[in-house]
Design brief:
By secondary structure, the chain is α/β, with parallel strands linked by helices. It has one domain (about 1-280): Metallo-dependent phosphatases (Purple Acid Phosphatase, chain A, domain 2, 4-Layer Sandwich), CATH 3.60.21.10. It has helices spanning about 1-20, 55-65, 95-100, 115-120, 120-125, 135-140, 185, and strands at about 20-30, 40-45, 50, 75, 90, 110, 145, 150-155, 160-165, 170-175, 175-180, 195-200, 215-220, 245-250, 255, 275-280. It starts with a helix and ends with a strand.
Length: about 280
């Protein structure tokens, strides 16, 4: 029994979070998606850059792999910063942003920021700023960062919108959080009937997302990070396991939650390996 526990611990702490990388693929036609309009999205979430678990060199390798997947757009779902204490070193924003800068796609690389990008920026917290060093680092390497902003992408014949929410847990006040997300204001920027893809770091917003949005994408939960044969002891969501991972359909509205790439709180993953998500829309 002792040997088994040691082996499980070694796998969860030393193999799954460091040596595994899965590719999860989805293919479907969400409601409101135009017939014959195909789009491939590559989604990367929750890097949590730190030494030794997610150094800049590993981020660059993941990005090189993501470039081989043929995405029409690459979407970054936030939490580039790490809040873990069990680290040997910090990866400065300039370094992880440089690693991300190799990402390329015909319709661009689009990003939102996550709660840890806010929480690990003391000045943004103290002064209640409207952006963080993570926003600045991404922009400095040419990556579009969406903070309650919608942009029209694609071609004149096959357009679509990418709408990115600012973080729902941005500010910390003791054990309470408050957000900067503005869903109505973001969707009000959509000026035609082209389909909308919504980027929101935390999936909890999905309960308020209208059917006008063809697909909502989130990260944040890490798939629970530890999955004990279907039981996930810790899920950072007020809805528990309702939006913990994968393709969720409610009232004909579609959400995909990535399991993410890095670790939060503790450098452990079990039955929830780091993943890159590839989504094919309009080709099912």
């Amino acid at each position: 029994m002792a040997a088994g526990l040691v082996s499980l611990g070694a796998y969860a702490g030393g193999i799954e979070p460091l040596a595994r990388l899965s590719t999860t693929r989805y293919r479907f036609n969400p409601p409101g998606w135009p017939r014959g309009q195909s789009l491939r999205l590559v989604v990367l979430a929750d890097f949590h850059a730190c030494e030794p678990w997610m150094p800049a060199a590993r981020i660059a390798r993941i990005c090189d792999y993501a470039n081989t997947l043929g995405g029409d757009a690459i979407l970054l779902m936030g939490d580039y910063m790490s809040g873990m204490k069990l680290v040997t070193g910090v990866v400065p924003p300039a370094e992880w942003a440089k690693a991300l800068s190799v990402l390329k796609a015909p319709y661009g690389v689009h990003a939102v920021c996550g709660n840890h990008d806010w929480w690990q920026d003391p000045e943004a917290q103290r002064l209640r700023l409207k952006e963080t060093v993570a926003h600045q680092a991404l922009r400095s390497v040419g990556i579009e960062v969406h903070s309650n902003r919608a942009v029209r992408c694609g071609t004149d014949a096959q357009p679509f919108w990418i709408a990115g929410l600012e973080d729902q847990w941005a500010y910390l006040t003791g054990r309470r959080t408050s957000g900067l997300d503005d869903l109505p204001g973001t969707l009000a920027q959509v000026t035609d009937d082209a389909p909308v893809i919504l980027l929101a770091h935390e999936p909890d917003i999905f309960v308020s997302v209208p059917s006008r949005v063809s697909l909502t994408l989130s990260g944040h939960t890490h798939g629970g990070q530890v999955n004990l044969f279907g039981w996930r002891p810790a899920v950072p969501s007020r809805f528990g396991e309702r939006f913990v991972y994968g393709h969720v359909v409610e009232d004909d509205r579609h959400l995909i939650v990535s399991g993410g790439l890095g670790c939060s709180i503790a450098p452990v993953r079990f039955m929830s390996p780091p993943e890159v998500v590839v989504i094919e829309l309009g080709s099912a």
